[in-house]
Amino acid sequence: MDWWTTRRLVGSSFSSPLHRSVPQKVQVFADGSASAWASYARLAFPSLSMTVSDLRRMYKVPDGHRNHAPKNSQALASFFNISASEADARRFHLAMGNRRQPSVHFVGPQGPPGVEGNIDLQWIQAMGNNVPVTYWATPGGDPATAHEPFLEWILELANSTDPPLVHSLSYGENEEDYSAAYQRRANLELAKLGLRGVTVLAASGDTGVQGAAQAGGQPPRCAPFAAVWPASSPYVTAVGATMVSWEVCNIDRIYAMGSNSSMPFACPETNVGEIVCSTQTGSMITSGGGFSQRFARPDYQAEVIEEYLSQVKVNRSLFNATGRGYPDLSATGANVPIIFENGLTMVGGTSASSPIVAGLVALLNGERLASGLPPLGFLNPLLYSSYQRWPDIVQDVRVGNISGSNLLLPSGSIRDCAEGFEALPGWDAATGLGSPNFKEMPRAPSGEGSLNASLT
């Protein structure tokens, strides 16, 4: 099921009803337009750098940058009758001082708004500024066993004459919960969507190396490690979670913002910045990652994974060292603010990370479309080849480990593993290549091999 459970408060959470916010102010934009926004009496989040403007700054999005390509598009996948509140999204952007976003196009049966739907909608809009959103709900599946109808959703996209260009998926299950034939067909359709210019991003999971660990599904396990699909598919871009650390590195322990938890650390020459999102450093969840048990390592990852495996000391009997490694990218997934049922609430998980990165990909598509170039489509081959030439397109995450657990599980299921994948320089099975550096992603229309070059 969804990575964030139905429990409303996550971590150092608080909920502040919107109508209690006080003075109304006006934000004037460069083009002379204005938007009212609410100034909360206590808009001091338990984790700093978590407003929309702060996150856009952290991922190096220029101030005021927004989509201007009329044919650009982005979408969210939804199952089990979970919808999103467009009214809450408007309140969120009002509180954050954002411009009003284009109206949402809802596809499929829509139930009542849920936390998961609100996370997805508010943050893909926040990062994919002014890119129209489709909220795509697919019926079917079995909520009792946490079995989402992934193939049915993919086939709906495949049969669409004009599917949205970027899709964020905040759901996943253990690989073994679906048949190999089912997954092969899904992977085939995902590859075909990529050739049509469609990019699919998937959350990597919230229980470290222990799998999806959803209610009704397989329990968490430490041996062998459990891979999560569709994130483990070679044809999606898997997104893990980070959290923000204090950026003052003159001590021998590192603290996560909004947390009293710490871990020993030998400080590098520069500030630490983002670290792996983990229960061991104060988060409610641990970002998922690892290696597929079913899908072979794709060529686009070969070099970076060999480098990682030459350094990692995890027992090889616990994972498939020849499998597809994930995640590919990461973004913040702890103490993320949303509006739910008219209240300001802190949430977390890779359910937040995936739409954050998806929105940035949609912004890149907007620049390509405005320059007469095709959309990015299947991102991974281009992402990894660009990284080899321009490593600054990402911000390397080098601190942390995904041996932790998920504190939202039943108490009897919460345990850390003795081993897990750690973050190291370069690609790793905890955070992938790192978090996006939008400014450094080569965005000029020319530049062979760059993220703005043609895939053909």
Give a description of the structure:
This protein has eight helices and 21 strands. By secondary structure, it is α/β, with parallel strands linked by helices. The protein has one domain: Peptidase S8/S53 domain (Rossmann fold, 3-Layer(aba) Sandwich). The strands form seven sheets. Strands 4, 5, 6, 7, 9, 11, 14 and 17 form an eight-stranded mixed β-sheet that branches. The protein has a three-stranded antiparallel β-sheet with strand order 1-19-18. Strand 2 and strand 3 form a beta hairpin. Helix 2 packs across helix 3, helix 3 (115-127) runs parallel beside helix 7 and helix 4 (150-158) packs parallel to helix 5.
Write the layout of secondary structure elements.
Layout: E1 15-17, E2 22-28, E3 34-39, H1 52-58, E4 74-78, H2 86-96, E5 105-107, H3 115-127, E6 133-137, H4 150-158, E7 166-169, E8 173-174, H5 180-195, E9 199-203, E10 228-229, E11 237-244, E12 253-255, E13 262-264, E14 274-276, E15 290-296, H6 302-309, E16 323-326, E17 329-332, E18 336-340, E19 343-347, H7 350-370, H8 380-389, E20 394-395, E21 435-436
Parallel strand pairs: 4-6, 4-7, 5-6, 7-9, 9-11, 11-17
Antiparallel strand pairs: 1-19, 2-3, 8-10, 11-14, 12-13, 15-16, 18-19, 20-21
Helix pairs in contact: 2-3, 3-7, 4-5
Organism: Durusdinium trenchii
Cofactor: Ca(2+)
Protein name: subtilisin
